[in-house]
Structures are given as structure tokens and as C-alpha cells.
Amino acid sequence: MARRLFLLILAVTAELSLNVATAGAVGVNWGTEASHPLPPSKVVELLKSNSIAKVKLFDADPKVLRALSGSNIGVTVGIPNSMVKSLNASRKVAESWVHDNVTRYFNGGNRVRIEYVAVGDEPFLQSYGNQYRPFVIGAAMNIQNALAKASLASEVKVVVPSSFDSFLSKSGRPSSGHFRADLNKTMIELLSFLTKHHSPFFVTISPFLSFHQNKNISLDFSLFKETAQAHKDGRKTYRNSYDLSYDTLASALSSIGFSDVDIVVSKIGWPTDGAANATSPTAEVFLKGLMGHLEKKTGSLLRPPIETYIGSLLDEDQRNISSGNFERHWGVFTFDGQAKYGFSFNHNSKKLVNAQNVQYLPPKWCVVNNNKDLSNASARLLEACAVADCTSILPGGTCAGIGWPGNVSYAFNSLYQQNDHSAESCSFGGLGLITTVDPSVDNCRFSIQLDTSHSSSQNPIFCQRWPLLLLLFLLSGLF
């Protein structure tokens, strides 16, 4: 009898373990490239209230890590691409980095549960060329050695997040998946390193970009719609873009002899602004479809991911937009921690829990003064957009339809909010007017920034895009 009971318990445990392995853990990416980031303590509260148990960071900000201490949230600490070369060149630099950004958070009662160190932020992106690639493996090895020296190698794994364009299939069939030719040698080195240290392969899967770049991928196929036309590959049928991309990756791994490595989808999501079909309702459909798909006990994937990270938690108004204006709008929440749509990470809830007790600047906006001569207003708009975030009024944005001079007011307000309501930032040669009447129109929100002391300076990346912005405005007939 006791033996039968033991076998029954063993069987149930095995089934539960299988279900967990099939679904995998779901976390979020937490980026901080914002002019007025939500205070880290508020973000940690947001993570907890929404039952988010894992978070991936892009750096090792001490304020963020201190806020995560004692939270029991699994953390991936990021190393920026800009540091990869120096970490490759010196073991001492790697040891110093590990001491300052990992070891110190393992001491004491309120430790940070650091699970991974991510070397680089998608350093293999094709647009980067050889800027980072030659130094990544050496940097990862030096970080691994530093963790071993600190007696943390058994607790913290070293990974390298790979970009969505690191693998492909020219035929469009997953079974023909392979890594980019220029990456083959690097990938063999990376996967040999990961396998040796029992670390997973981190990779971005992007149905959104696949949809925009591939005419054979329909929106319904990207959104897990049952009505979408299936894609066949031999005897296998694919009913959504996610499975198609994922199995293309699995084939690429098998093609170089690493079919058994664990996979972590380190970034996946759908933006809500800045491009065609980048809307909140569409993002809601995508994420609900993704979560439902990940929770299935059976599916078309032979080897599902062990973890999946939604990208991202919050919108970031200073992210690099060289790949598209949508880059600043990946958040499940707005910049101030307010849910964009009906969705939940918690099985027991149908909606997200907003950030609580958020502190804003006073309810004031900067708009164009219609009683002035507006012949120079468009030039002033460009001045504002050279510094502030104007992605929502560009073609494909949620505010692109408000027309002129509404778009001028939006640009003026964006700069005014970024500069903490300073009167000078609403001057614009006398064209600006401070008002207490909310100028928001329909779905076009004229935001009020957070009241925080973490304001950053002008974003040099955005300033470099001024000529491109001018061209976009001219082409879209906004003047």
C-alpha cells in the first residue's frame, strides 16, 4: 500500500514538473531609458502587485538593485554593449564589475536574487556589424571566471542575449533555419561556452518585426488568431508566427550541433505606438494569445522555452529610435505605471494592477498661442523635437492625426514636461502658452511628467535624428 502511494505521489509530481517545464516562467524586461523614470521602489511594488516573479535589466543601476533587495524576484543583471570591449581585454575589470554589481548584493539578509548576468544587449544585431561581436565571448569568459573566483558560479549563470536577426530561413521554412553566415563561428563558440557552464541561450523572438518585414506573414498569423492561414513545412503545420520563428531558431541550433541547449526567450512583445498596427488593442490581443499559448500543455514546439520575458514593463521616452519610433512604446504599462489594456500575469486576475500613489508635476501644459503669428511655428516644433519625444505625432503614431497646429502644441508640451515645467522651456520665441486646460484630443494624450529628481539631460541620440525628423514631417505633409 505504501509503495503504491509513493508511486502515485511520484507520478503526480512528475506531471506537475512537466507542466511547469512546458509553460515556463514569465518575466518582464525593465528598462530605464526615460527622462523621468518611475522610482525603482514604485516599480518593484508594481512587479509584486502583478505577480511578476522575474525581471531582466539592461544594466546594473545600484538604485534599481537596492530596490529589488529582499523582494525574492529573480533578476538578470545586464552589461551594456559599451562595456564589452573592456571586459574582454581585462580579467581585473571583469572581477571589479562582478564585485560591484553582483557579489555585494549577495551579502546580508536583504540579498538580490541574481540568477543571470547578461553580457551585452543583443550585441549581434546585424546593424552593429563588428562593433561588439569580436569581444563578446572573451567578455563572457572573463565574467564567468570572476563569478567562479567569487564562489558564485553555481548560483549565477552568464548569458549573451541574441537578436531576432541572428537566425533566419531563406526558404521561410523552419526546418531550413540557420544562423547568419557571419555569425556561425561566433555562435559555435558561444554555445560551446554556454553548454560547458549549463547556461541557457537567450534570444529575442519578434513576431511584430517579422510581420513588418515579411509579406508572407499576416497580422492574424502574428496574433495567434485561429482563423489565420497555416504555414506548412513538410508534415508540420504552423498556426502562428511565434512557433514559426521559434522552430527556425531550434533548427539553427541543431544545424551547428546544439539541439539540446535550453532556450530563454529574453524579449518578446508588441508596441502600442509609432508604427502601423502598433496599438494598445492589438498588443492586448497579441499578449493574451502569447500567454495562452505558453500555458498550453501541448503545442507544436518540441522544446518550449524555460523562461519568457515580455518586453517591456514600461514605456521609455529616451530609447534609441534608429530602428523605429515604436522602440519607445513597448511597455505593458505607460511611463507612469498605468496599464494600457486588459491583460494579466496573474492567473487569478483578469487585469493589471496600476502603480499606486504616483507623484506628478502640477496639472499644467504648454501649447501654441493661437493669437500669435504662427508662420515660424513649424521651425519651433523641430527645435522641440530635437530634444523631446515626438514619436507619437510622427506617421503611424497615436497623435499623428491631430494636424497642425495641434502637433506643434504636442511638441511644445513634450519639451515643457521634460524640463519640469520651467517657464523658459515654454517660450519658443513667444509662441508658447502655459495652460491649466488639458489639451488632450481623443486617444492623443498630452502627458504630465512625473515629479521626480531623476530627470536626465538632453538625449544626444535624438538630437542626431533631427534631419530625419524634418524629412519625416515634410514627407507626411504635417507642415
Task: Give a structural overview.
- This protein has helices spanning 2-23, 40-49, 62-68, 84-89, 91-101, 133-149, 184-196, 207-213, 219-222, 241-255, 280-295, 377-385, 406-418, 460-464, 466-475, and strands at residues 25-30, 54-57, 74-79, 114-119, 157-159, 167-168, 178-179, 201-204, 231-233, 236-238, 263-268, 307-310, 365-368, 432-435.
- The protein has 479 residues and is of the alpha/beta class.
- The strands form four sheets. Strands 5-4-3-2-1-12-11-8 form an eight-stranded parallel β-sheet.
- Helix 12 (377-385) runs parallel beside helix 13.
- The chain is globular and about 70 Å long.
- 45% of the residues are buried.
Strand order, sheet with most strands: 5-4-3-2-1-12-11-8
**Coarse shape:** globular
Percentage beta strand: 5-15%
| H and E string | HEHEHEHHEHEEEHEHHEEHEHEEHHEHH
Query: Which spans of ≥5 residues are poorly predicted at pLDDT below 50?
Result: 1-22, 454-479
How large, in whole angstroms, is the Cα Rg?
24 Å
Range of helix content = 25-40%
- Distance between the ends: 83 Å
The average pLDDT value, as a whole number, equals 90
Structural class: alpha/beta
Number of strands: 14
Number of helices: 15
Q: Please summarize the sheet with the most strands.
A: 8 strands, parallel
